[in-house]
Amino acid sequence: MALNLIFPGIFILISTSLFTAGAIAQPANEKPSDNIKPSASAETIHAVKDMLGQKIILDFRYFCEDNTPSSRCRTPMTVIPPSLLNVLSTHNIGGVILFSENIQNTEQLIRLNYTMQQHMVKADRQPLFIAVDQEGGRVARLPSDMLTPFAGNMAIGATFHQRGSAFAQSVAAHIGQTLLPLGINTNFAPSVDVNSEPKNPVINIRSFSENPEQVAALGQTFVSAMQSTGVMSAIKHFPGHGDTHVDSHSGLPRVKHSKAQAMAGDILPFANIINSATPPAMVMSAHIQYPSLDDTTIIDKHGKSQIVPATLSKKILSNLLRNQLGYQGLIVTDALDMAGITQFFSHEEALVSAFSAGADIALMPFTIRTKDDIKKFASLLDNAANRMSESAFLRASHNRIVKAKQRFALQEFASKPITWWLDEAKENALISNPNSLNNRGEQIEKALSRASISLLFGKEKLPITSSRWFALMPDAARCLAFEAALAGANTKTTNEPLEFACLPLTALPKAQLAMNLLKQADVLVVGNISPLHANYELGGLDLPEHVKQRANETDVMAFSKKIMAAAKAQHKTVVFAPLRMPYKAQDVKELADVAIATFSYAVNIPSQSKRENQRVTSYGLDALVNVLLGNTVAEGRSPVLLK
Fold this sequence. Notes:
alpha/beta; eight-stranded parallel sheet
């Protein structure tokens, strides 16, 4: 371990449903759906398969053309091979969802999307939905140099009391204006879940607020602004994922609200946005159990009784969303490869059941990673088509999809030469033009970070005039970004050179080392990310052995409290800075003098080749430091109560 001199006076330490009788699951209290039958003529099956293809969005995150087993394939698909193009046209697939693995740079992304759309035109097929999850904040698939990630929904919520829906408008419009020329026509955003559970592991800062009316207002503006650019918006996760303790990527959560609570809380944002002047093109379902809305029990693939998940519930998707709320757009499932579904249902059961429940589109119902997977996918479609009839329901769903594609002019991307889009992308990215799209996005992100910074308590302790700072940060990248923020702040309070040391808490350092550094400082700043961020969000700057020995959230908090208590005893100024959810500030109120929430832990990390000349930075930490030093006043207000 060693202190590395960053510049004079400042140093940083990086320490060492419905199923047929032959199905697995059948609700005991409902008749089999009219949309399924055991057999059909070859001509009918062909027509059904053609419609089913339009009702599917696939992911090609990885694809291996050698003999790599599907489960071990990790070759990113950045240039689509003929075998996958053939999957799209042969099965009349409705769309493709892209992930960060599919995206290298602007030109590559445009060529990838153009190749897929042009192939469908030549095959006389419908244009594709080309989709991403670009919510902003921690859910952003495009690299930050292509599209600034912004601080996210909860940061937007923190500006609501002063700015209303202004940032929802500017952020959503910018995202749409950036996506469309790249060939992306569908964005699975925004999340309009009401974050009413402080321990929610998956929604948290992806929510605008714990207040349903505020979520509705911001969500409605976001949808309207996004769709005004020509990009389809999907609000999620119906009927509401905000009050769950389980992440549906890893399990099947249950919401215990009464129906009255559901309608006044979780469902209110969906109802308001759906019935606004600009309803969303899509509504995405949630893999959650919501007994007050549907307590039907089914038998899963393990032979156990389960309350039907919303994604597979006819009462929730058809009766409630389609009929009661009057939604006329497209119902899309959340990814069917998530554990909330795959742990309990086979690919075929999930696909057929989601369609029978009322879903128009199945997202990622089967994982294609190899040529062998292509054959299995074809078999899955055959089996599904054999079980579904060419009903009025199926035709109506297919027609909704075609009309949506026509309404949003999805055919336009391939109708222009690719050079048109490449030239537009170059103009959008011009650094030399202060009004270029990329530069405008950066300006919006800086403004949002400044406007959302929220003082939780300790106003009387500001500004801080000391020049000797010690910080505990969640990882090395946030240490470096906080150091850059301190160094770059044009302080009004002191002209003395700043002294700064930081310990990352990826793996907990020796307590004695922290105590020694604390003695040399006047100010302790503790940055906290709760829930703990994922390893891929660390930034790649920590020592590999520290990542392997990474401390859990409980241990990180205990260590932080120990050092905070020591600082308090030594009459140091103690600052607690929640960078994600602010709830932990309540736990340290007796130990901290000041608590300030940023609602964003995003950092900008330069590429390997540029690290010698460029620093790790963070607009959120810049805003935090400027408030601490008295250069600015915290304007935001937390959209969630601390208790």
